[in-house]
Design brief:
This protein has 298 residues and is mainly alpha-helical. The chain is built from 12 helices and no strands. The two termini are 37 Å apart. InterPro entries: EamA_dom, EmrE-like.
């Protein structure tokens, strides 16, 4: 099943998060974004050149917007790893389906459409934010509320990125073009931001391997995720991504000795379940809308 590529993607992103958490002791989020983009651009560029493909695009404006929003989201997300438990950081990144569900519900209300299972959609959205509040309380006690909100903001921006990527896909833009220019934007954004804000920290040999691994895992994860969504069943793929939270929880416990209060664990679980439910209902709403818009046979 092609959707199972998402399992590999979820594992790759979880391990990447763990490596970022480790490297954050020596490098800022801006520097990590720069090196992540550099490695990804080199890997993707080599593959594109070897396969005879091109990175030319007729939609430079859309690519620039998507890449800038995506890089901002990624920078916000990376900045949470140095402070929050690994599983909490990963969970915040997976709030993007809930923001998409909010957009679907708002669009249906604005156009006066009665979406199927709308009540359940609203309930899933409300439950997800209850989950956020549940993990927010311990964060406040540990002076981590600001970082947690930054992570939540990254989830919101990730939802915008998802819609932008879908638009580019519908316009016929190849996946590798989207991924390549995103990596280039990482280099430019991360490089400039690191120079004018935190400055550049000395690159030690012990961190070269982890930084290379971050870029490699990011590229592999993106390719597997793209294949899963492009060739697999969308709903199954979207739900399989939540395995990343389980992977991150185990890795955080084994590697970083992360421990959770019961309210944090319950909040993470509530966010994951709500996200899966919202994804299911949003997909049903999109399918119903497509059916209504399909012309009747002559």
């Amino acid at each position: 099943m092609q959707s199972l590529w998402m399992v590999g993607a979820a594992l790759a992103f979880s391990v990447m998060g763990a490596v970022i958490k480790h490297v954050s002791a020596w490098h800022s989020a801006f520097e990590i974004v720069f090196f992540r983009g550099l490695v990804s651009a080199l890997l993707m560029g080599a593959w594109i050149f070897a396969s005879g493909r091109s990175v030319r695009t007729s939609r430079p404006g859309l690519h620039a917007t998507r890449s800038l929003v995506g890089t901002t989201a990624m920078t916000c997300w990376f900045s949470t790893f140095s402070v929050l438990p690994l599983a909490t950081s990963v969970t915040l990144n997976y709030t993007s389906p809930l923001f998409i569900a909010i957009a679907v519900a708002a669009a249906g209300w604005w156009h006066g459409r009665t979406a199927p299972l709308r009540g359940w959609l609203y309930l899933a959205i409300a439950a997800s934010f209850v989950g956020v509040l549940m993990i927010l309380r311990p964060a406040i006690e540990h002076d981590q509320a600001g970082v947690l909100m930054v992570g939540l903001f990254s989830g919101m921006l990730a939802a915008v990125v998802y819609l932008q990527v879908r638009t580019l896909s519908r316009l016929g833009e190849p996946d590798w073009v989207v991924v390549f220019w995103f990596a280039v934007t990482n280099i430019v954004f991360g490089g400039i931001a690191a120079t004018v804000t935190t400055g550049w920290h000395p690159l030690e040999w012990r961190n070269v391997g982890p930084l290379l691994l971050i870029g490699t895992l990011a590229s592999a994860g993106q390719m597997m995720m793209t294949r899963a969504f492009g060739r697999g069943r969308t709903l199954l793929t979207a739900n399989l991504q939540y395995l990343g939270v389980i992977f991150a929880t185990v890795i955080g416990w084994v590697v970083f000795d992360d421990r959770f209060e019961w309210i944090e664990f319950a909040g993470i679980l509530l966010i994951v379940v709500s996200g899966a439910v919202a994804t299911r209902i949003s997909s049903a709403g999109s399918a119903a809308a497509a059916t209504r818009e399909r012309p009747a046979p002559a």
